[in-house]
Write a structure and sequence with these properties.
The mean pLDDT is 91. Strands 6-7-8-3-9-10-12-11 form an eight-stranded mixed sheet, with helices on both faces. A four-stranded antiparallel sheet has the order 2-1-4-5. It folds into two domains: 186 residues, Rossmann fold; 67 residues, no CATH class. 29% of the residues lie in helices and 25% in strands. Helix 3 crosses helix 4. It is a peripheral membrane protein.
């Protein structure tokens, strides 16, 4: 497969009072054509900021990209004047109620996307909007376009955000926690929706979540982040069968099983570190049960292991 998006050594810095924090901090990964890549990790690991950096939407002046490259279709998005946001790259934001304007009807908000990017007249744009809404399973779109966001259910608002993101047939769709706050039935519907988009339109997807069980249902590969760093990148099946990084293993072990009712849930001890003063060496070592003496002194390198990558001293010197 050909690479559509390549992120190289990306670091984003935020100023908070008299302190600075970096998340993400020197991460590298790729998304191939017609591939769904899951980006998972605890809150505060830098997942959403990574997405905002790709979209060139890092909030200024508090935040800024201090180094790295974001290569999309051979062009560095950080070095060009016109970002392909909304046309070739689109994003489904985390909270649709905050992303949609409560004072404007849904139809007008969606048609504005096509009028802005393609200079379509209102009638042409509305025809396209209704067709996309039908494809995404929004019932009776001719009537729904005349409603306001608060008149939609949570699932319908999320479908509307997806419709807005795919109106221009993007090559890359970034979904930031698109199933958060939805019940499991609606979650399953939204996941199926993304699968159909990938199959029908051959759209590449970067799917962000803190929930590995959700990611496992859609991702071809999974990137595991912790405290601004990437711990592991692996095909989904391999990651669940044999997690390499102790943090990944902890996340998988903490997923409750269907037959474990009444048993104590597994948990990773401790908390994510303060990124204004991150620990020396591996950032996970204060919580790791398998740490070595070197883990607290030196940051682990990225080690290729059986067509996977892991940043952990446990694999230093292992034949790859």
């Amino acid at each position: 497969m050909k690479s559509l998006l390549t992120v190289e050594d990306l670091a984003v810095e935020f100023r908070i009072s008299n302190s600075k924090l970096r998340a993400p901090d020197g991460i590298s990964f790729s998304v191939m054509e017609n591939e769904c890549v899951g980006l998972v990790g605890e809150s505060g690991s830098g997942k959403s900021v990574t997405a905002l950096a790709i979209m060139n939407l890092v909030p200024a002046p508090q935040g800024r990209i201090i180094r790295g490259k974001i290569i999309f279709e051979g062009l560095d998005l950080l070095a060009i004047n016109k970002h392909p946001r909304g046309t070739k790259i689109s994003m489904v934001f985390q909270n649709p109620m905050n992303s949609l304007n409560p004072n404007i009807k849904i139809g007008k908000q969606l048609t504005e996307v096509l009028q802005e990017h393609y200079n379509l007249n209102y009638r042409e744009a509305m025809e396209r909007v209704i067709r996309v809404m039908q494809e995404l399973g929004i019932p009776d779109p001719e009537k729904m376009i005349d409603r306001y966001p608060f008149e939609y259910s949570g699932g319908m608002r999320q479908r509307t955000m997806i419709a807005m993101a795919v109106l221009c047939n993007p090559k890359l769709l970034i979904a930031d926690e698109p199933t958060t706050a939805l019940d499991v039935t609606i979650q399953a519907q939204i996941i199926q929706l993304f699968k159909k988009l990938k199959e029908k339109s051959r759209t590449s997807i970067l799917f962000i979540s803190h929930d590995l069980s959700v990611i496992s249902q859609i991702a071809d590969r999974i990137i595991v982040m912790y405290a601004g760093k990437i711990c592991e990148i692996s095909p989904t099946t391999d990651l669940f069968r044999n997690p390499l990084h102790p943090y990944t293993a902890g996340l998988i072990n903490s997923i409750p099983g269907a037959n474990e009712r009444g048993t104590k849930l597994m948990a990773i001890p401790g908390n994510i570190p303060d990124l204004t003063n991150p620990p020396e060496g591996c950032r996970f070592h204060p919580r790791c049960s398998r740490k070595l003496p070197i883990c607290s002194r030196k940051e682990p390198p990225v080690i290729l292991y059986e067509q996977r990558s892991v940043s952990c001293w446990l694999y230093e010197g292992v034949n790859t």
